[in-house]
């Protein structure tokens, strides 16, 4: 009998109710766990977090919270092998697990060490200097940041069941807010395991972490301005949450990280013999195949000089032919399956939409060989490369295929690239592959207003580059418009989402001692 996932509420594991739906192994279709339709009462869960978790966290200083996170990161590292084993069932290869599991624990550790080094041993943060407001020097103002008094509700996507939770939990915990986590259904069993290990550690004060393994019904209705709502997922769900009467009506602080049509640009200076050509091709293949392309930051649109279009197409097709698609547990597998059959149907539908305006130059969305697995029972799909030579086509700038899918878009002049990239409506990550600093500068200036993060890649920084798709805890993750309009990570600035910034006016002597 497969386990039915439980929720963690009131510091105990509780059973849910209603019909439990099967959550399947991405590669074999076997049932891994079952997810109940309903969990413990979300209103009571939020109440416990606010009444017990919030005060317990606010009684600790930033330094004390950082010490707990540091110990927690070490504790989770001790369990990394157990997480990796279960991660395989989500379709993750060893490389994919490194991004999700080790990447998540690493994010926790970075937050712990940055907070220990950069935050005071205090409970309130000063934001900026004391600003004189009177000629006589007796009256001034200063901004302070104090934790909000409610619960930090975190709704996550299926593709990063570990990283997605920890990158939100860490700044909320440091800021002084208890987390209420709702993982996405398909991979909730991995989030549940990590939360079990976090709570068993005994390191977390009571009420500071709750987990809802069930549908989201009832989670939003009681939110107030002292709570926060952080969301990662599709743009369609982001819109529903943003306009929810409780969220909009009570001005609940809301952050969204949604899908985006990220781009990479190959500079016009690059020839087929330059190292940048190979870097570009390698990067596209990496972004298509890591997590089988189920990364919100993956390259969906590749802008290439028209003169190099055939050379890039051939080089990419040649590289993609060598990608071994197979069971994620096999050491020779380059790319595992999608998270589930439902996701594969969505990818196939999106590819059909793209193919209406672009030519498929590699891969068949309906056929793939899978090493060590049945390609039909598992959610396997071939890498799909498309090419669209029509600059007026709309589909590549509008349709996100959340899988191993990219479209090549030849351009003739650098001046068209920024405008074409902007047709994506706002993206999380972009990259520029060029050895020419002037090309890089022109594109950074043109792309920055529409992007959360930009990578300039060339022979000088490639060896140490963290790559196009990897969100770093030190840097902003988020993007304008379609990408959700939010900001996460970006170092300790991420704490601000969980704190209220208040201007305090008074005598400068009093203000100086505030934080
Ligand atoms: P999704 O369908 O929007 O679901 C995301 C989360 O929202 C899930 O936990 C889901 O719960 C929950 N949800 C759905 N409807 C809800 C509602 N009415 N009220 C409250 N919660 C609700 O997205 P997905 O399919 O899991 O994730 C794939 C998408 O996420 C892709 O488009 C990808 O680009 C995007 N993504 C973005 C980022 C980023 O950082 N920007 C990262 C990863 C993924 P259930 O699972 O229970 O339905």
Automatic annotation (TrEMBL):
The keyword Oxidoreductase applies. The keyword Transmembrane does not apply. Pfam families: Aldedh (PF00171). Residues 1-25 are annotated as: Disordered. Gene3D superfamilies: Aldehyde Dehydrogenase, Chain A, domain 1, Aldehyde Dehydrogenase, Chain A, domain 2. Keywords: Oxidoreductase. InterPro entries: Ald_DH/histidinol_DH (IPR016161), Ald_DH_C (IPR016163), Ald_DH_N (IPR016162), Aldehyde_DH_dom (IPR015590), PaaN-DH (IPR011966). It comes from the Bacteria. Residues 21-500 form the Aldehyde dehydrogenase domain. PANTHER family: ALDEHYDE DEHYDROGENASE B-RELATED (PTHR43111). Belongs to the aldehyde dehydrogenase family. NCBIfam families: PaaN-DH (TIGR02278), PRK11903.1 (NF008868). This is Phenylacetic acid degradation bifunctional protein PaaZ. It comes from Actinomadura keratinilytica. The gene is paaZ_1.
